[in-house]
Amino acid sequence: MSFGTELPDQVDLISNISDNHLRLLADVKDLYKERAALERDYALKLQALARRGQEKKGKLMTALLVGDTPTRAWGEDTIKKSTFDHAYDQFLTSTEQQAMDHVDLSEQLSVQ
After folding, report:
1. Is 23 helix (H, G, I), strand (E, B) or coil?
2. Domain ranges of the chain
3. pLDDT digit string (tens) for 49-68?
4. Which three-class secondary structure state does DSSP give residue 70?
5. What distance in Å separates the CA atoms of residue 98 and residue 76, rounded to the nearest whole number?
6. More confident residue, 86 or 9
7. Are the C-beta atoms of residues 50 and 99 closer than 8 Å to each other?
8. Is the per-residue pLDDT at 18 higher than 80?
């Protein structure tokens, strides 16, 4: 069976279907680009949030744990022993890791 001679009336139909597939692929490609941009923006915002959290921690942690006027001697190890300091560090680390995961996802989507 030869396509051109056996199915002469199907050429336009097959051409239209192929065009529709190509349009769909272009739409999917655009969606990937938009998703990659969103992931990149979200990652930048998470990184900024973690940075601000780290700055605030540095300013307030001492006063929070030993008060504005400590009544006994304290050192950096006093802060490091705090469960609040540990939990806050875990939160910031987790936020930074999520940001990196979103950067990686953005890069993977951009490549595809």
Report:
1. helix
2. 33-111
3. 999 999 888 777 777 766 67
4. coil
5. 28
6. 86
7. yes
8. yes
CA angle 56, 86, 101 (to 5 degrees): 75
Q: Where do runs of H (alpha helix) occur along the chain? A: 3-6, 11-66, 76-80, 83-111
Q: How many CB atoms lie within 10 A of CB 100?
A: 13
Alpha helices in 67-82 (DSSP H): 76-80
DSSP summary character for residue 69 = S
Taking the model in full, what pTM does it have?
0.71
Residue type for 102, please?
Answer: H
Q: Contact 36/110 with Cβ under 8 angstroms?
A: yes
Q: Residue by residue, what is the 3-state secondary structure of 89-108? A: HHHHHHHHHHHHHHHHHHHH
